[in-house]
Amino acid sequence: MFKSNHLLFIIPALIWGSTWYIIKYQLGTVDPIVSVSYRFGLAGILLLGYSKVRKLPLSFTKEQHFFIALQGILLFGTNYWLVYISELYLSSGLVAVAFSTLIFLNIFFGALFLGDKIKKKIIIGAVFGLLGTILIYQSEFRRINFTTDQIKGLLFCIASITFASLGNITSSHNQRKFKLPVVQTNGFGMVYGSVAMLLIAILTGKQITIDTSMSYIFSLGYLTVFGSIIAFTGYLTLIGRVGASKAAYTIVIIPVIALTISTIFEGYSPDIYAFIGMALIIFGNVLALKNKK
Q: pTM, whole model, 2 decimals?
């Protein structure tokens, strides 16, 4: 589906830069865990349908299905459930900034579980990226007064980042050990993640409802097709090619895109700190992506 690594980097970054804003339209009437189940259930069915039409292989061993399910529950289930909850308490900008730390966890877990080498240039680049995102949202940080709700949101966000990173590492493992194709793996993984979230919702007494408003339906469609199918196909393919730590730079650059969207739709006015922050993020990306060996 994607041949150029540059496209694999740019497309998920552009899409996910907008999804932090779009997720807000999913919050309210429908419980977050149910919305996540809808999103990835639809995405998984569409991907498996596409695979069937294209006659792509859909037969995997029990061991492979176990790791596909693990990837799905971590990355397409628990991770996003916690993201949606965190955005009930924190601004989408702060959550986007927090997710910039994903690269550090990918480096750590990659070394711990996959035996990846920790490279100095990647860490230095990650530090520049993190400093840049902090500068961009420094005014948001100054408004934090650590109320109970904000602490709650921060804890949910940290847990979400951890599950997301473990999902990244599982995807990298699946591609390295089993040579599993990304499209079909994502299809099954998203269905597994969706079913797991739906079961949790039922067992915990959540109400299974649907919001028929245009804003909810449109945002669900956008998050399903663009935020789930297209973005994850590109991003996880990139992980298979360059590794989880370098692919995570997609996440680091997202706050720049989120900032642009916020400027257009939310009246955000960037200051000198925002421009310095964007420069640091771009420099960090160039530094890390030039590290070929």
A: 0.86
